[in-house]
Amino acid sequence: MEQSATAISRDIGVYLKLIFGSLFGICFFMLPFFWEGELTLPIALVQKVISKPFESLLPGVVVALMILSGLVSLFATATGGKGLNAYFQSVFVTSWMSVLFRLAGAVLAICAFWHLGHEALWGEFTGEIIIILLMPSLLVIFFLATTMLPFLLDFGGVEFFGVYLQKLFKTLFRLPGRASVLSLTSFVGSGTNGIIAAELDYKKGMYNAREVSIICLGFGTISLPAVFVYTTAIGGLEVAHFLYFALTLLIVGIASTMVIARVPPLSIKTDEFFEGRKDPLIDQETGGKTRFEIARDLAYTKAARAPSLGKILKDGVLTTFELYMSVFPLIVLIGTLALIATEYTPIFNWIATPITPALEAIGLPEAQTAAPGFLTGFADLLLPFLAAENIDSQLTKFVMCITGTITVICMSETGAILLKSAIPVNFVDLLLVFLIKTAVSVPIALAMGRLYGLT
């Protein structure tokens, strides 16, 4: 039988897990400190310490992983996973389109590493950036972020603070107070997981069509650890700026979600519940509990279910390997092709033509070069960060990474999940919300970057 909130509150072990587990997660991902004269974060320092002795070997490891992903996926998908256990079947048995992507990623990795084929595949500003500079850093930091993320999300801290945000959510976002925990978890953690959880709650009658649409499109962003990876390792934003980046991200996130909650298409979504269901519990009183008692009970319940250190490590290894096999080939493929298109074709300049004058008018440095990155994020979340890699201005990198994070309604992942779900949004909704959030985010991020002194 599950422990009651009262029993949980008397368990000193749960107190310790809640306090120290959550504090460790917050500190590991968000506590800045000076190291050798530079401002850094624990996750960045650990990544640097681990990577340094193996710097020359890591690109070869990346190529080996790409080859493993492509060949084993081809074999496993062709045979239906015969001879593989359930975990490896889930990793390697996939669609033929995914197999093609993984094989293409492997081919591009081989070409970049051994300088095979046309120079466009392995040049200094294309394949070399991806295989020699980008992927080795991601190799280590993906493991650290994936393994340590439970300390940030699974030890009750998010639930505790989420309760205190309930009234604010009603005022700012036109959302019921109970949405605060799900929204905060989605914003800090995985937006994809937040969308999945929101769909389940929608089907249970916890939210109406308008509310669930705002939750998913307002807070379904990139997880905080992933944001750190994308902005610093891919986008090239200096680690010293990341704490201010996180603060700006919060401000821009609040502002953009306030706007989309009040303008079409989301403001005119119906207040009807899924198939007419409405969970009667959402109208019930809190039983006379104080806000602290509610926050305490939610946090303690979450902390009581927190995984052990052994399970955290095991799940971290398994999840990281799955990411290496499924996500890394996409990064190599999309990243290389995007950089080739940037270096050898005018396509991104054509796409950016309509917004370049606006960016120049507000004084964004390198506006013409940066412009495509503000629109290509609709196709894939990596593209804005890859575009930022080619920018010299830290201010412009800052604005691009903020906008790329806040507007992550990419059709390669988040958008595809939303369109396949029961959540009542369509392609036009996604495109309009993406454009609205971009228009809101850019000037605020630019003003905050200038306030901070970036150039």
Which key phrases capture this entry?
455 residues, mainly alpha, two-stranded antiparallel sheet, 69% helix, 1% strand, globular, Nucleoside transporter/FeoB GTPase Gate domain-containing protein, transmembrane helix, Gate_dom, transmembrane
Adjacency order of strands in the biggest sheet: 1-2
Oligomerization state of this entry?
single chain
The helical percent reads: 55-70%
Q: Could you name the ranges where pLDDT drops below 50 across 5 or more consecutive residues?
A: 1-9
- Write the H/E string, N to C: HHEEHHHHHHHHHHHHHHHHHHHHHHH
Number of strands: 2
The percent range for strand residues is under 5%
Overall mean confidence score, pLDDT: 85
Rounded to the nearest angstrom, the distance between the terminal CA atoms is: 58 Å
Give the structural class. mainly alpha
Number of domains: 1
- Overall body shape: globular
Gyration radius, to the nearest Å? Answer: 22 Å
Number of helical runs? 25
* Main beta sheet: 2 strands, antiparallel
